[in-house]
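[audit] Reproducing an earlier prediction to check determinism. Same input, same settings, fresh worker. If the tokens differ from the archived copy the diff job will pick it up downstream; this log only records the rerun itself.
[audit] input (364 residues):
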Amino acid sequence: MIKKILFWIVASILTFIPVTIVLLFAWRVYVKESYRGLTAMPTKGVESVETVTLGGMEQTVLLRGQLRSSPVLLYIGDAVWLPTLSVAREIGTNTGLEQRFIVAYWEQRETGISFSGKSKPEAMTVDQYVADARDLLRWLKKKYKQDKIYVMGNGWGSVIGLQLAAKYPEEISAYIGSGQIVDFRKNDDLAHQFATDHAVAAQDKSALQDILALGQPPYDDKKEQLLRKAVATYTTAKAEKTYGFITPAMNRIFFSTDYSFGNLFTVTRSNEYALKQLWNEKLYALNLATTVKKISVPVFFIHGKNDVVSFPQPLEEYFATLEAPAGKKITWLEQAGHYPEIEEPVELKNLIAHQVLPKPPLSP
């Protein structure tokens, strides 16, 4: 009798698992194709995926915009943490960016579907990513016959974007920093303190023990991921919340309209590879407050008050000292965390419409 019961339990499980997997992937196809239809560009628009050689390596760029005559905006995402194409349509549609720009969503070196795993360690540096961005900037200028390009960077991408704007002002119309990172070391010091304080307040001894076991930064990629997981437990920012083992990033990658089934494994591997190569002591030594003291193009920062990845304090201090002869503006969002363009897209839409494109006189 017991053997029969065990047999039916095992048989049920073995049947349930493949059926669940088939249904899950069928749902993925349905969601993908539905969203593709909802976000399709009009006949006069731009929608294409291009492979461009940047810094000697082939990289992928998704181009989207409702009018071919629009100015171009290069979007440099937080790609080592959140692959750019997994959020491209969501950002472009909800913020209205694609109504006003041709947006170039860049899958950066060894991230997303630009992953090859072949880059040498010496090519996995911030300087190389800035050089890649410069190449892409010039490719976009030539392709669309425009003298200048708008640049927007989020998180990791904001480190690239800010330096790009500082180095090549003659090629850039304006720079928008979202979740702007200034100092990796200071951010992790603040993140460690944030997680510690909240674990103590919650009387979560297990979590506190794990946090203290990390020690003080600098961290390698594994410890950095553990720190961010600890911080995500206590944040109020929805885009960074983790529900069990399902993270927002995993959910977006799986259902992305721009990733094929075959891309899923590649994209997942890319994050692990890029983080391992980039997260090191050189990164922690980078402080943009000391290396980028002046930017000659208009600068706009849009930052969540609840950002626990790039804490507001370092940006606030940087903004006070930044020389910006063409003007600077910072917009604080009360409800957003590290991804304002995902969490409060209407605010970014208003910033673009009323401040960035008309280019009014700026004041701190």
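[audit] rerun output stored. Observation attached for the diff report: The radius of gyration is 22 Å.
[audit] end
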